[in-house]
């Protein structure tokens, strides 16, 4: 798996060999970032259920100011740190190895501008995560929610869906904070 654009384009990423971690395919990542365009530049970003960190690292490569990676699996956290170090962008990434919900309940920042939300498809409904995430977002922030094509993004007051794309069995829903 490689970074598809930006400063570390072509950089190879390690993928943790952990059940339920399904890295975003390179073609899907490329399409997501083509849709986002210049929006990524200078943004304070979160990569929730980070896995390998591919979405957040891609964002850093394309000019995100900083990325907070949240992942509960210790082995995957180690891989994210290795990927950041190998790409020489570790100073712009913070890895928090803990449950996403618990971190968001106590997370101090209220100025997040871009979020990648790519939970294991087996997690089920995500309403609670969207609700605890919402207070951390600046107005106009975007959430890129990757989920099974058989599910829908929850309807959360204050968030508006502005685009949906289907790639095989994966649906990517783009939301913005109003």
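-> sequence recovered:
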């Amino acid at each position: 798996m490689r970074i598809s654009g930006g400063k570390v384009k072509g950089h190879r990423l390690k993928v943790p060999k952990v059940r339920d971690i399904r890295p975003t395919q390179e073609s899907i990542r490329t399409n997501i970032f083509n849709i986002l365009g210049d929006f990524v530049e200078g943004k304070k970003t979160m990569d929730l259920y980070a896995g390998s960190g591919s979405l957040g690292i891609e964002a850093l490569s394309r000019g995100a100011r900083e990325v907070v990676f949240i992942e509960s699996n210790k082995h995957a956290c180690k891989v994210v740190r290795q990927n950041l170090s190998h790409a020489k962008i570790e100073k712009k990434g913070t890895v928090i190895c803990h449950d996403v919900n618990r971190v968001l309940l106590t997370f101090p920042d209220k100025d997040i501008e871009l979020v990648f939300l790519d939970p294991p498809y087996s997690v089920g409904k995500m309403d609670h995560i969207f609700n605890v995430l919402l207070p951390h977002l600046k107005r106009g922030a975007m959430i890129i929610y990757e989920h099974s094509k058989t599910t829908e993004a929850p309807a959360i007051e204050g968030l508006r869906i502005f685009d949906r794309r289907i790639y095989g069995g994966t649906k990517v829903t783009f939301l913005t904070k109003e």
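Residues 2 and 12 are 4 Å apart (CA to CA).
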